[in-house]
Design brief:
single chain; alpha/beta; Aspartate Aminotransferase, domain 2; Aspartate Aminotransferase, domain 1; 16 strands; seven-stranded mixed beta sheet; binds pyridoxal-5'-phosphate; 38% helix; globular
Amino acid sequence: MEELSLNIGKSKKLFDRARKVLPAGVTYSIRDLEPHPIYIKKASGCYLYDVDGNKYTDYWLGHGALLFGHAPNFLVKEIVDQIEIGTHYGYSHELEVLLAEQVVKMVPSAEMVRFMNSGTEANMYAVRLARAFTKREKIGKFQGNWHGSYDFLHKAVKTTGKTESAGLPSKVIKETVVLPYNDLDGVKKKIGGGELACLIVEPVMGSTGFIPAEKEFLKGLREICDETGSLLVFDEVITGFRLAPGGAQEYFNVKPDLTVLGKILGGGFPVGAVCGKKEIMEQMDHRKNPEPNERVFHGGTFSGNPVTMKAGYITLKKLEDREIYNHINSLGAKAREGIQEKFEEKNFEAHVTGVGSMFCIHFTKEKPVDLITATRTKNLELTKELHRFLLENNVMYLTPETAHFFLSTEHRSEHVEELINLTQKFISERGN
Ligand SMILES: Cc1ncc(COP(=O)(O)O)c(C=O)c1O
């Protein structure tokens, strides 16, 4: 792999050390880059600064968790104050009550909530709640949807047809029925009589490249669940608090039975949560269900730690101001329209998808609506070249294989205009 035109010598040295002690030199494979990861030293607003002194505009924003950008002023002082009086009590405290009340206030289907530390964990608990409630074991997940790395959900994220991690028991995988996204008839055919505990769905597919569900599709899933007795679970780890104060369920006006939250909820700290109907959530109530085999266990050393709870509470309170959404969503629309226009001017085979403050560039012949259309004609080489080109122009996002971009309140029109101009430059240097 050719060296980048950027000076990233110190990153290279860190990578050489990292490879000796971290498998592949990273803590998450998607953070790897060619020829090696770039090591970040500090971040502020929508900018990242690496160890070699390069400055980048960031469209990855901590995996989409940082709606207010890096280290927002309104949070930093409050968090420092909290750290001084305790990072982790391991007992009950007011901040977890405040954040739970705020989630119930904002998320339309939330009557009760429990906190954990990651989206993966939250999805695991949502599946457990659904299984306990319905007394069914099989679950339905959608092709191309990513829910983290829980064994039962780590399947059909890509089109390889192979198991997507080593170490997944084959019996476990058989319990998960793979369903087609944005295809109600296909879903009905697949689920037949309805022995599924839940249908778990991303209202906007994230890692497949910000492909939104059609509203009618989500409504149809609601009806299917009502008819078959399966629970409808929305994985709103990305869309929660990003698409609207009440997330995708507010945006699409479809209420799930359970909702999985993460990312923005933690105000920049590790978090996950499950919320939903009282009767389902109360299966976690050990006072009401004293028999261990009749309640759904949930716990965790760091669950509900005061730093995350405080950061989450302050963040969510801020998000009651709808002006914030007008700003980030109009920037998103500007980016989608502006970049698509450049492709059309040049008759360049590419499509911009997304909704709200998320957009993705797909070098495909057709506009993707699901995993198949996002991959069938995808020009992977060009996708990687775009990543490299933008990186060399001090624009950062992940991954090289999926050109998807998050926006924050810290991004301005100028950033989006710069991105549109760079994309134009990129395509004008290449024919179609
Ligand atoms: C939709 C969705 N669900 C679940 C997860 C897993 O969350 P975490 O990485 O916090 O485990 C992610 C992570 O990106 C996600 O995008």
